[in-house]
Amino acid sequence: MVFLTQWVFYGLPWLQWGQRQAVLFDLDARRFYIFGLVLYPQDFIYLTGLLVVSALALFLFTAVAGRLWCGFACPQTVYTEIFLWIEHRIEGDRSARLRRDAAPMSGGTLVRKGAKHLAWLLLSLWTGFTFVGYFTPILDLGSEFASSALSAWEIFWVFFYAFATYGNAGFLREQMCKYMCPYARFQSAMFDNDTLIVSYDEQRGEPRGARSRKADPSQLKLGSCVDCSLCVQVCPTGIDIRKGMQYECIGCGACADVCDTVMDKMGYARGLVKFSTQNAIANGWNRAQIIRQVLRPRVLVYTAILISIVVALGVSLSLRVPFKVDVVRDRSGVVRELDGGMLENVYRLQLMNATEVNQEFRLAVHGLPAMKLASPERVSVGATQSRWVAVRVQVPVDASKSGSYPIHFEIEALSGIGHVTEKSVFLLPR
Question: What is the pTM of this model?
Answer without folding.
Answer: 0.81
